[in-house]
Design goal:
heterodimer, A: 699 residues, mainly beta, 8-stranded antiparallel β-sheet, 7-stranded mixed β-sheet, 3 helices, 43 strands, elongated, disordered N terminus, B: mainly beta, 4-stranded antiparallel β-sheet
């Protein structure tokens, strides 16, 4: 892909006539310069992604330019002009201007750079030696070529070299992959390390952080070498341009990243390689015609999980559909949409170890066109069941790895679920959706019915096989706490006994952090899972706000997310647990005041459940039927007022709850019709389209 | 790891009606009919929300056994064994889908209610579905051949049954 900026071509046509005294570059460029072709052409390379574009194809010479170096002392590029057989100076018009070098040899040079410490150019040729040319007009040896004493014995098969940004040494990697330093005053050559990759590294560059970048001619791969380590190694960093004739130059004191606003990153956890500093998967969007799905957008860096690329900017992770599930030891199908022709590579972290191994590649160089394709792949028998991550990369470059830069295309990361073969998963209300449970906490007395004393988003997943439940997953978010009472939140699974739970196998996270304490409540026969004993230890009201996310102007991010994966000890028939919502309830935090009607803090003896859901064995049944509560356990009536109104309701969506002190019937007027018709009318009264938008909480 | 056995399907899937309790005999993948979902009786959205007739929710009266549930139980009974040649398939019932003007259906497989392997085109079970979902998409994909996916739109009915046969 070579794209020349037309504006530069036009300016070059003008400047070729008057290039004798071109101006220097205005600043230390962050892009790398790459000289290629038999007749010199100059490219700009973003080393962050490998994206490169033509700067000038008309440099005012009939032959190539090699041994390029950027001189930060005068902000000109220098290189060896094969047409003129001498050092040439290149300014911001990109025209070759030969210099008059005194004492010049008869050789051409393809290995060279400009020193960072002094205003001098150095060129090396195998069998001849290392030469210095002063570029300082005030120096007595200005423009004079001299052999560095002792350098005639240097015998390195190198194709470019670069000055370190601050130690004065030249660095080069030979074709075998050995990294050497060269002292330009003593001609001392030191072996540093074997970098792990061999080849013709025709263009090498430094950045200000002591990283050396190697561009391999044969395939264009750009490697990054951290020279600050004792034994530097090369890691694949980006897919750049391949060429038989390469030479690079760069302002060594510039940082490496440029134009980050035009890069697409993945958003898997950083252990998979997502952030720039982790050499994360990234695609240059300067030419953004190749992408997955319907769109691609850029980020300044990866929004790694639990943030999401899709929640910031466009929802652009839309190119891959998992049209079948992923079952251990089975085939599976993917549907892929691409905007134009490119190569797809994809990985799934089958062993769940937090990275994409080479044997976890599920799609390799699959050529896809501007269409929808279906791809069959396999889940190995050794795969671990449970949640993991998948990565998809589309590019015009074949053979991309799971990390590193690419000059075009897109990366999409997905959190996926691997299940055991032959299993069935039922989601409520959906894999990535939530219902809402909203509570009034003044039970057993009626409250203000703003239904925001505790608001929790909740979803469940039940994994079955052969009509037996294998595991249950409960996930949620604490969305609002419009209460002063300290309360906890828990989920009881009706029909399940505590002893049927594989307690050691429970995976419980809060805000994606694994919790060491078991959520399974002690001392109960039922299986009760305590999410938190006190939501007020997990969330906080904003400044100058009384409550968490209920008052106008008191918005904040959701501060508590939780997840529980609950395995079972033996076979649990699915008929034993027919209800997908289970029994979410709030309870009084032990030790905390809960109103004057309780002479002592009620703690676990006070629970608030959805209407007609029975309390757990923790409750003091003396409270049932007390105050405004009209529970009658003998006919399975619980948690309802004399009018049959509840203290807790379920809403079938991610509900926009009423503002503080706003009665739900005013925020959602059709609630009245729903109640009066016993649910026959407006069963979806809670949807945003029915909200009185001035009365609901908006962040 | 040579896992890749690729084949390409044109996934321009056209929809035929399935809604209603009895289901339809049409196979969506062999026809060119466009979306023709059974009409669903919708209560129209009021342009202006009504003013409550009460001063507070506490004044409302609800039947004591009306639990205010925001979901319904859906009975699913699928038997397409006579229409398919392949035994191994994967069934998804999802809420997120869009019928494009072309008749093609865009399905959000990341937000399904049921995901299960099926054999011989058979599945029976019950699902809890939230009340706002009056239409669902049923998608069956086959593993071992280039048989086209079987796609149906289901519309809510009084019996809350999803039957495909």
């Amino acid at each position: 892909m070579r794209i020349f900026f037309s504006i530069c071509v036009i300016c070059n046509l003008v400047l070729v006539l008057s290039s004798a005294n071109a101006a220097p570059f205005k600043e230390c460029p962050t892009q790398a310069f790459l000289g290629q072709s038999k007749v010199a052409s100059l490219y700009g390379v973003n080393l962050a992604t490998g994206y490169y574009s033509g700067i000038s194809s008309e440099m005012g010479t009939t032959d190539k330019i090699n041994a390029l170096g950027f001189n930060l002392h005068d902000s000109y590029l220098y290189g060896w002009s094969y047409e003129h057989g001498t050092l040439a100076k290149i300014g911001d018009d990109y025209q070759v201007e030969p210099t008059s070098v005194i004492n010049i040899t008869n050789s051409n040079f393809y290995v060279g750079d400009v020193s960072v410490e002094e205003n001098a150019y150095f060129a090396y040729r195998y069998g001849s030696g290392l030469y210095r040319i002063s570029l300082n007009p005030d120096s007595s040896d200005y423009n004079t070529m001299t052999l560095v004493p002792g350098s005639e014995s240097i015998s390195l098969s190198i194709y470019d070299m670069a000055f370190h940004p601050n130690n004065g040494l030249l660095y080069a990697v030979d074709r075998r992959g050995d990294l050497f330093t060269i002292d330009v005053t003593t001609s001392e050559v030191k072996w540093k390390s074997y970098v792990g990759h061999s080849g013709t590294f025709g263009a090498v560059y430094f950045d200000v952080d002591e990283n050396l970048y190697l561009s391999r001619n044969s395939d264009g791969i750009i490697f990054k070498v951290d020279t600050s380590t004792i034994r530097p190694e090369a890691v694949e960093f980006a897919a750049g341009p391949a060429s038989s004739n390469n030479d690079g130059a760069r302002c060594a004191i510039a940082p490496i990243i440029e134009n980050v606003s035009k890069i697409d990153f993945g958003d898997a956890p950083d252990s998979y390689g997502s952030r720039f500093e982790s050499n994360g998967a990234r695609h240059d969007l300067t030419v953004s015609t190749l992408f997955l799905g319907s769109a691609v957008d850029s980020e300044s860096d990866s929004y790694v999980h639990p943030l999401s690329d899709d929640e910031i900017g466009l929802d652009d992770d839309d190119g891959v559909s998992f049209v079948t599930g992923m079952e251990v030891g089975s085939d599976a199908l993917l549907s892929i949409v691409s905007s134009s022709a490119g190569y797809l590579n994809a990985w799934i972290d089958f062993n769940g170890d937090g990275d994409f191994d080479e044997d976890e590649k599920i799609v390799e160089n699959y050529f896809t066109n501007d269409s929808t394709s279906t791809v069959l792949y396999s889940i190995p028998a050794s795969a671990s069941s449970g949640a993991t991550w998948a990565r998809f990369r589309l590019s015009s470059t074949a053979g991309l790895g799971a990390i590193g830069g690419a000059s075009d295309g897109e990366v999409e990361d997905y959190k996926v679920e691997i299940t055991n073969a032959g299993s069935t998963t039922q989601y409520y209300p959906g894999q990535n959706d939530f219902v809402t449970i909203a509570y009034e906490d003044n039970w057993p007395f009626l409250g203000d019915f703003d239904m925001n004393d505790l608001v929790v988003f909740l979803r469940t997943a039940v994994v079955k096989k052969d009509n037996n439940i294998q595991s249950i997953k409960i996930a949620g978010k604490v969305v609002a706490v419009g209460a002063a009472y300290h309360s906890g939140f828990a989920v009881n699974i009706p029909g399940l006994k505590r002893e049927e739970v594989d307690e050691d196998g429970i995976i419980f996270t809060i805000n994606n952090k694994l919790q060491s304490a078991s959520p399974l409540e002690l001392g109960r026969e039922e299986a009760i899972f305590i999410v938190t004993n006190d939501v007020l230890t997990q969330v906080a009201a904003g400044e100058a706000c009384l409550f968490y996310r209920t008052e106008p102007g008191c918005g904040s991010d959701i501060q508590m997310e939780f997840s529980m994966t609950i395995p079972f000890v033996g076979l649990v028939p699915d008929t034993q647990i027919p209800n997908s919502l289970f029994d979410p309830f709030m309870f009084a935090t032990p030790g905390f005041y809960h109103g004057s009607s309780f002479t002592v803090p009620p703690g676990r003896s006070k629970e608030i459940h959805l209407k007609n859901m029975a309390p757990t064995s923790a409750v003091n049944t003396m409270f049932l039927g007390f105050g405004d509560d009209s529970s009658n356990p003998s006919v399975n009536m619980y948690y309802q007022s004399e009018n049959g109104m509840p203290w807790a309701i379920e809403l079938g969506t991610q509900w926009k709850h009423p503002q503080e002190y706003i009665d739900v019937v005013f925020a959602y007027p059709l609630f009245e019709r729903f109640i009066r018709s016993s649910g026959e009318e407006y069963p979806d009264w809670f949807m945003p389209k029915y909200a009185n938008k001035d009365l609901i909480f908006e962040k | 790891m040579n896992l890749l056995r690729n084949f390409i399907l044109a996934i321009t899937v056209f929809v035929s009606a399935c809604g209603g309790s009895a289901g339809s005999n049409e196979n969506s993948t062999n026809g060119s009919s466009v979306a023709d979902v059974d009409s669903i009786v919708n209560i129209p959205v009021d342009d202006v929300l009504p003013v409550p007739t009460v001063q507070s929710t506490k004044e409302l009266e609800a039947n004591q056994f009306f639990d205010l549930s925001s979901s319904y139980e859906l009975s699913v009974d699928i038997d397409i064994s006579k229409k398919i040649s392949e035994s191994r398939a994967f069934l998804s019932i999802c809420s997120d889908f869009e019928v494009l003007e072309s008749g093609e259906i865009k399905i959000g497989y990341e937000n399904c209610i049921l995901r299960t392997s099926i054999k011989n085109g058979l599945y029976k079970g019950n699902l809890n579905v939230t009340n706002d979902n009056e239409k669902l998409i049923v998608a069956i994909w086959f593993f071992d051949s280039d048989e086209k996916p079987y796609i149906k739109i289901w519309g809510k009915n009084d019996e809350n049954k999803l039957i495909i046969s």
